[in-house]
Specification:
Layout lengths: L4 H9 L3 H6 L5 E3 L2 E4 L11 E4 L4 E4 L5 E2 L1 H8 L4 H12 L10 H20 L1
Antiparallel strand pairs: 1-2, 2-3, 3-4, 4-5
Length: 122
């Protein structure tokens, strides 16, 4: 499903990353950020940091990182569309249910391929 970039950005902005991640794992405030043991690998010392000001997360142990959408994609194994639907529901934003034109499908497939390449490279 194609969603305009402006809508995706609004959904991200209306879902604070600390609130979303803390609903899955226990975060503790540490200065300007929040920390916990990484949910993506086993560890005893917290190396998973969440920045409320930057709205991103990063694990200094395994290198996992991203925004609120990528967290859900990694943690819950959601697709991009599933993560957006979850966050839109959480924020009370109605997502349009429209069929993609062939041109939009091609553009969306290309974007998804680029996201996959970027995830693999990270």
């Amino acid at each position: 499903m194609y969603y305009p970039d402006e809508l995706v950005e609004e959904i991200r902005e209306r879902n604070d990353i600390v609130d979303v991640i803390s609903s899955f794992v226990g975060l503790k405030r540490a200065g300007n950020s929040y920390t916990c043991c990484c949910p993506f690998h086993s560890e005893k010392t917290p190396s998973f940091h969440v920045s409320k000001t930057k709205q991103i997360y990063h694990c200094f142990g395994c290198g996992a990182g991203g925004n609120v959408v990528t967290f859900l994609m990694q943690y819950e194994n959601y697709t991009f569309t599933e993560a957006l639907k979850y966050l839109a529901d959480r924020a009370g934003i109605a997502l349009p249910e429209e069929e993609m034109t062939p041109e939009k499908k091609k553009t969306e497939n290309r974007k998804e391929q680029m996201r996959d390449i970027n995830r693999s490279a990270a």
